[in-house]
């Protein structure tokens, strides 16, 4: 019996398992970090330009919208880092069984969010 | 026994490994630079400037930048290969991305050396 190939899956109807969610967020966070390199370079340049630039950096960062953006980028960085460590553990054959894979993915997801929230509290 | 023709550009394993080596470099750099910043006696412009003028910080940051930009290239190229089917568009995105990454390299070196 032949089944129609390739199968097209409706991404909006799939309930993604946690490792899948961590995986796609690894990709999304990486893309976001790439897109925001110029933003970060502009800020870095400002801090080193002059004492006035340093002050301007501080006042830019005191805006709530910039704070939210920075918290978002910190989350992207943390999630990308933690999911990357998970990737390398999988490369080394750790946590490839389903329960361990689920637990590790949950840990990656939760740790990234918790640390980003803590950073947000410190920033605010 | 099936004799298989191996095809492709053969950069898969190299990039897989480079992605991991550059990742480890970035994690180590992040941990060290965050500790150094946290240990600064004061957080003002002059302290900040002296930090980035220190030769070891400069050269470590150059290594970080090289790792970061190569890591970004491998990652972004993988995304393009998965979603962009049109060869002309994909090529255009490759060229644009390489151009942007090279620009960031020059820009960040300029920031560091004018600090």
Keywords:
heterodimer, A: 124 residues, mainly alpha, 3 helical TM bundles of succinate and fumarate reductases, elongated, B: 115 residues, 4 helices
Explain what this protein looks like in three dimensions.
The complex is a heterodimer of chains A (124) and B (115). Chain A is mainly alpha-helical and 124 residues long. In chain A, helix 1 packs across helix 4, helix 1 crosses helix 5 and helix 2 crosses helix 3. The longest helix of chain A has 28 residues. Chain A is elongated, with a radius of gyration of 19 Å. Chain A starts with 17 loop residues before the first helix and ends with a helix. Chain B has 115 residues and is mainly α. Chain B has a single domain, classed as Up-down Bundle (3 helical TM bundles of succinate and fumarate reductases). In chain B, helix 1 crosses helix 3. Chain B is elongated and about 65 Å long. At the A-B interface, helix 1, helix 2 and helix 4 of A face helix 1, helix 2, helix 3 and helix 4 of B.
Element-by-element helix/strand order of chain B: HHHH
Question: Strand content of the residues of chain A, in percent?
Answer: under 5%
- Strands of chain B, total number: 0
Q: Strand tally of chain A, please?
A: 0
Q: Assign the CATH topology of chain B.
A: 3 helical TM bundles of succinate and fumarate reductases
List the topology elements:
The complex is a heterodimer of chains A (124) and B (115).
Chain A: H1 18-35, H2 37-49, H3 51-61, H4 64-91, H5 98-123
Helix pairs in contact in A: 1-4, 1-5, 2-3, 4-5
Chain B: H1 12-38, H2 45-53, H3 55-83, H4 87-113
Helix pairs in contact in B: 1-3, 3-4
Concise overview:
Chain A has five helices and no strands. Chain A has 124 residues and is an all-alpha fold. Chain A has a single domain, classed as 3 helical TM bundles of succinate and fumarate reductases (Up-down Bundle).
């Amino acid at each position: 019996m032949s089944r129609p190939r390739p199968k097209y899956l409706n991404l909006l109807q799939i309930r993604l398992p946690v490792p899948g969610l961590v995986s796609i967020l690894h990709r999304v966070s990486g893309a976001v970090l790439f897109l925001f390199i110029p933003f970060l370079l502009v800020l870095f340049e400002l801090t080193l330009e002059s004492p006035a630039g340093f002050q301007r950096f501080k006042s830019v960062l005191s805006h709530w919208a910039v704070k939210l953006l920075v918290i978002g980028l910190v989350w992207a960085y943390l999630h990308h880092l933690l999911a990357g460590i998970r990737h390398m553990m999988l490369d080394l054959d750790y946590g490839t069984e389903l329960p361990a894979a689920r637990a590790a993915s949950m840990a990656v997801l939760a740790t990234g969010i918790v640390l980003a929230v803590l950073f947000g509290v410190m920033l605010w | 026994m099936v004799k298989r023709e191996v095809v492709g550009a053969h950069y898969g394993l190299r990039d897989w490994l480079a992605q991991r080596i550059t990742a480890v470099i970035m994690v180590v750099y992040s941990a060290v630079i965050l500790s150094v910043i946290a240990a600064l006696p004061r957080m003002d412009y002059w302290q900040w400037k002296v930090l980035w003028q220190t030769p070891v910080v400069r050269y470590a940051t150059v290594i970080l930048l090289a790792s970061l930009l190569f890591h970004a290239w491998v990652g972004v190229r993988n995304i393009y290969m998965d979603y962009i089917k049109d060869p002309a568009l994909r090529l255009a995105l490759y060229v644009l991305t390489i151009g942007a990454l090279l620009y960031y390299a020059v820009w960040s070196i300029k920031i560091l050396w004018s600090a």
